[in-house]
Amino acid sequence: MNPYATLDELGAMLRAKEFSSLELTRFYLDRLEKLGPKLNAVVTITRERAEVEAKRADAEIAAGRTQNRPLLGIPYGVKDLLATKGIPTTWGAEPYRNQVFDYDATVVNKLTEAGAVLCAKLAMVELAGGFGYNNADASFTGPGKTPWNTDFWSGGSSSGPGAAVGAALVPFAIGSETSGSILTPSAFSGVTGLRPTYGAVSRHGAMACAWTLDKLGPMCRTAADCNSVLHAISGEDPNDPTTIGVYVSGRATFIANSMMRDHPRKLRIGIIKGSHEKVQKEVRENFFRSIDVLRGQGHTIVEDLAWTELPVSATVGVIVDAEAASAFEDLIRSGETKTLREANDRIGGFEAAATLAVDYLRAQRIRAMIRRELLAIFDKVDLNVDLIAAPTRSTVAYPLDRNFDEAYKGVSGGPSLISGMNLAGAPAISLPNGLGENGLPTAMQLIAAPANEIALLNAAVNFQAATNDHKKVPRGFE
Amino acid sequence: MKTTRRSFAKVLGAVALVPSAELVFPLPGGPKKQRESVEKLRAVALKNGDEPDFTFSALAKR
Question: Is domain A7-310+362-471 classified as CATH 3.40.50.1110?
Fold first, then answer.
């Protein structure tokens, strides 16, 4: 078995009965057990539940109930902030080590309905980084390590999904993003990760970090895989009112991978001024190589688009401070924050709790201004831009032995596209596009206007049809 | 005597000519980054009509 096979490939082999879902599931369970500890990627392996779900999938396949079910019999993992009935859900944090819910999160329910097989609860930065960590060692399971070089971080806060998909311990995983927590580990671990439109995917049963920013999304081998998983997990859920009206059932919101490949769209793709200048040399070179591929596919590249002058990062910072302090008020009041792993996290909650209401509301007022300015990039008739392209991160993964703010002092980065587009609720996908310093992956992000995942995924699927960077395998994890 | 919000407000009101912003809107005493964030936000000029979008919908009319 090739652990790095795509979902479409695995599905075809299951339907052809080359192996059963139970055999496939045991194959990945063994990889999770054997390789997971090397990367600090796994919190709980759900072998018992997985084998039950795999046997159920095999019965469905035997009965021929396979049409339009690309995830049937496919193993997966979830970031350990999604509730799973009877299985610990730790939020990556010591105070919640023994927390057990009596229900499954909506996303897990939807994947169960799709016939996917839950194999693992995957590691994460404690409390999804809501208290301002500054070091990779910020989880009770230890620092997530990228399979490309285990002296470096797998990225956060979805550190386990990044490492686990990067090393093919699971074919796909579900991560979450408040401001960068899907895109960053996708870039640092060499996987393809999709941050959907805010409200596209129900957060019911997910730990809240910042309600007005939190999103769940797929982290996979390919953009086509992300498309298949998004189709299964998106849609309205009365348990999460933010989903109402975003991905309405019955509306055309999904195009099959084969259709995307057969009908590549010619889009206008913008580049934000300053987004590729203050980045590492290999990050810039790989980005322009990717732009050449896009141009060669018939897309029109529009350069030097203006970015907002408003304080994007500061706005996200104050919103996350206030909302996380509220979400974890009980924990802060209890004093149990002292058992958190990372030094900043142990005190960050108290500082965040001192955020004034007027400052929080000021941040939300400025956010509305930022959102208007950023989404206007897609709306301006003279620009008529469908997507924005940029390096996902200005550097490769951070070394484990240094604080983040000391890791790459010479690289200042550019406009904060990740923070800004999270404030705007816009979707983005991170695509591996080569290697940089220390053999670590680099990546390009494509960003679309809210609810325009179809254009985003069309461009991403066809970009990967012309490139091989997403197919590279980290040494030692073949 | 217990200081209530009301009595605190009265004191501030009585010294309204004295710049009292630091009393009413203290900057966070925590890490430099947090303090700088709040300072940056407070430097943005807001006017009547600059409202927060409490729908938080990514699809709200813009």
Answer: no
